[in-house]
């Protein structure tokens, strides 16, 4: 790959999070983690020099890859020559409407990507919040971010993002990846995480109320949940306490100790007794 990039005078751009993968075993392992099969449509975000795109095109029915950097066009044309089922769209994925992306894909699909670090959380949250047809999302992210995505309640890594993800499905850490396997080498190690939107997850009565409840639960970690509820929903202490008692939660409980589904139950109660009346 280095020769190919040199041939086309390609210069890596840090601002686009360009840390490419070349290790053939790792690329195959990521595609195996994703469980891509011959009937699958795959969406990749950030094609880079096309190393992952090529492996995906060998396994999948169809690959649609986004790439922001047009200077990669000649490189990709060469890497993907003969890959008739792969197409690259040279646009900023973060500015795309999810409905338009899903219309282009035409039905159920999975995402497989070595995500540019600077947009990891917004891209993942775009799928968590807006996708209708995404079944699996298998992405390489910084290890520290991967731990936050998959964290258990009550741990230091657990936060609003974890709860929002758990509302939609399951999240699993698939493998750790050393920084040595990227070109150029980043300053941190990475990990592959897989989100399964076909399993787990839970329904809530109102999405906006759930978002507000989660934000409230993690808003001030030094305060009790009762105090956070009082300020977030303008409630007197007695009503905030009554909400917690109705769910069998102990006095003095802190938001960050509640499992995501408990936050869902709290949000439903707030929606029924505080928001809706
Ligand atoms: N898939 C390749 C690989 O694994 O070697 C490249 C991965 S590299 C970490 C991320 C790629 O995403 C870069 O090629 C970068 O130019 C591209 N990128 C960055 N921001 C983007 C955006 N907003 N939309 C689409 N592509 C983007």
How would you explain this protein's 3D organization?
By secondary structure, the chain is α/β, with parallel strands linked by helices. The protein is 41% helix and 17% strand. It has 2 domains: 195 residues, Vaccinia Virus protein VP39 (Rossmann fold); 69 residues, rRNA adenine dimethylase, C-terminal domain (Helicase, Ruva Protein, domain 3, Orthogonal Bundle), CATH 1.10.8. The strands form 2 sheets. Strands 4-3-2-5-6-9-7 form a 7-stranded mixed beta sheet, sandwiched between helices. It has a two-stranded antiparallel ribbon with strand order 1-8. The N and C termini lie far apart (62 Å). S-adenosylmethionine binds next to strand 1 and helix 3.
Question: Summarize this, please?
Answer:
By secondary structure, this protein is of the alpha/beta class. 41% of the residues lie in helices and 17% in strands. It folds into 2 domains: 195 residues, Vaccinia Virus protein VP39 (Rossmann fold, 3-Layer(aba) Sandwich), CATH 3.40.50; 69 residues, Orthogonal Bundle (Helicase, Ruva Protein, domain 3), CATH 1.10.8.100.
Q: Could you tell me the number of beta strands?
A: 9
By secondary-structure content and strand pairing, the structural class works out as alpha/beta
Shape: elongated
Count structural domains: 2
Distance between the termini: 62 Å
Strand order of the largest sheet: 4-3-2-5-6-9-7
CATH architecture of the largest domain: 3-Layer(aba) Sandwich
Q: Sheet bearing the most strands, described? A: 7 strands, mixed
| Overall radius of gyration | 21 Å
CATH level 1 class label of the largest domain: Alpha Beta
Q: Helical percent range? A: 40-55%
Strand fraction: 15-25%
CATH superfamily of the largest domain: Vaccinia Virus protein VP39
Succession of helices and strands? HEHEHEHEHEHEHHEEEHHHH
Poorly predicted ranges: none
Overall pLDDT score: 96
Which kinds of small molecule does this entry bind, naming each only once? Answer: S-adenosylmethionine
CATH topology of the largest domain: Rossmann fold
Tally of individual helices: 12
């Amino acid at each position: 790959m280095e020769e190919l990039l040199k041939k086309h005078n390609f210069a890596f751009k840090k601002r686009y999070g360009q840390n490419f993968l070349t290790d053939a075993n790792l690329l195959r392992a990521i595609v195996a983690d994703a469980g891509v099969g011959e009937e699958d449509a795959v969406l990749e975000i950030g094609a880079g020099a096309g190393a992952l795109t090529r492996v995906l095109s060998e396994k999948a029915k169809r690959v649609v890859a986004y790439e922001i950097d047009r200077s990669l066009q000649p490189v990709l044309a060469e890497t993907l020559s003969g890959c008739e089922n792969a197409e690259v769209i040279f646009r900023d994925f973060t500015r795309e409407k999810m409905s338009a992306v899903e219309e282009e894909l035409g039905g159920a699909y999975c995402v497989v990507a070595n995500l540019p670090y600077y947009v990891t959380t917004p891209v993942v949250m775009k799928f968590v919040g807006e996708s209708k047809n995404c079944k699996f999302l298998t992405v390489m992210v910084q290890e520290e971010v991967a731990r936050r995505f998959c964290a258990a309640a009550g741990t230091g890594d657990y936060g609003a993002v974890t709860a929002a993800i758990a509302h939609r499905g399951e999240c699993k850490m698939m493998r750790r990846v050393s920084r040595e396997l990227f070109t150029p080498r980043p300053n941190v190690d990475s990990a592959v995480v897989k989100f399964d939107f076909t399993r787990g997850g839970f329904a809530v009565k109102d999405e906006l109320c759930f978002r507000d409840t989660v934000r409230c639960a993690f808003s001030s970690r030094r305060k009790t949940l009762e105090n956070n509820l009082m300020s977030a929903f303008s409630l007197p202490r007695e009503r905030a306490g009554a909400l917690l008692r109705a769910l069998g939660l102990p006095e003095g409980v802190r938001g960050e100790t509640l499992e995501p589904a408990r936050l869902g139950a709290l949000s439903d109660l707030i929606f029924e007794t505080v928001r809706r009346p």
